[in-house]
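User: Can you help me understand a structure? I only have the sequence.
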Amino acid sequence: MLFNSEVFLFAFLPLTAAIYYFLWRKVGRQVSLLFLLIASLGFYSYWNPWNTAIFASSVTINFWLGALIGRAEPSRRRWLVTAAVVFDLALLGVFKYWNFLAGQVAEVGVALPLVGMALPIGISFYTFQQIGYVVDTGRSGKPASRFDHYFLYLAFFPHSIAGPIVQHKELISQFSRVRPRIAYNLKLGLSIFTVGLAKKVLLADLFSKGSSPVFDAVARGHVPTLLEAWGAVLCYAMQIYFDFSGYSDMAVGLARIFGYRFPINFFSPYKARSIIDFWRRWHISLSRFLRNYLYFPLGGSKKGVVRRYFNVFIVMVLGGLWHGAGWTFLVWGALHGGAILINHLWNDFGPRRRWTSPLGREVKWLATFIFVLIAWTAFRAADLDAMVLMYRGMLGLNGLSLPLEAWPLEGLLRRLGVGAGAWGGVGVLDAWLAFIIAPLTVLVLKYWPETILLFRRNSTFIVEDGYEHDDRSRLGWRPTWRWALIIGALLAITIWRISGESEFIYFQF
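Assistant: Let's start by predicting it. Here is the structure, written out as tokens:
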């Protein structure tokens, strides 16, 4: 059941919200929370009931281990925390990485049995959240007191599939103290959800028409030209941003519909003027997790400059591996790790004054954005061979042929020997997306604040210190008729444009 599906929009969401608030008013908080847990498990089971059995087993074992950690002497907690983390990583490894490992060792003649079950949806996200829980319990000695609240924290349907990665202390505490203002929550939550849904349906799915034909053709052996490769990567950068930030906005909005706050997950990442700044703005909840539960335990910056650089690189490589079992994800993580390392070296030893001018800031922005595009190529490529073909095309080694066969000057272009490339037969829209619409969108994103900032004054989400930067929105959402008309029109257009079910990119991770 996808957030952008008719069954969710017209059946699951309105029924769940109506019953939840009815029970809250007529019976009380605990019964309404129990219903929300049951509804969330039903949402999760929609894809595959066996996934729910694995999920519930993982939740139960981690809650039990957390209780043991809380009762243990401080000297024993470390071992129990280690056991819990090993269990979580082993469960993730079996389902997400075992078949990949088996395929690699099979090439050297070693046969390993394969896992016959598909990757349980959302396992990467709820595994990380449970690792954070047991580690924090080991530090504080204070486990969750109620199993139903802990279960709901992980199962709550707005974030159970693809995040954001919510810390247990951020959500479980809300279950006991939030007193929702029903009308206000519905207005505000639905407004945020609508903006996220529009990002997905109106923009992400549109830009996929400019990226998928090329990447899919390259996976089949097509050799992309320079403009073809760069156009596809630019469209993919727009697609993945609007897809994942749209999902994150929908998750924040859905949580608010029920009266709860989620952490912000995006903060205008394509405005970044360094790769370090990019990771403070992109998938913030993942960056926060990697920092708190991997970078700091490795020693952070407290064990010398060399160890600091090593820790940064390892964290980013493992962050790349978290996204999927494939060499391309390792390459993507290594690219970002190397770039962050160079960024730190520049900050520590390079000149600074000359880069503070307006021109210097623009150069830094452009260099950062181009690098992000280069890294997205590895992230999107089907395999290493496809990645190499794309990079050859981006370097101009495959020629400069313009993919303009479907454009109005088709006859003239044919006489000039211009080919259609992977976009041929798909339509004029793809070329317009790659060379007109996507660049204009980049400029809009560079100067327009993150959409969710429209709602910041309402304390709708959690913003961690250090992520607010200097962005300010001159607009601000208010529960007025003007905003109701704007959101209503946007929702109507978005629902009208929905055609079939288009999965979110991060569902595969």
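Now, to help you interpret it: Strands lie at 262-263, 461-462. The first strand starts at residue 262 and ends at 263. Let me know which part you'd like to focus on.
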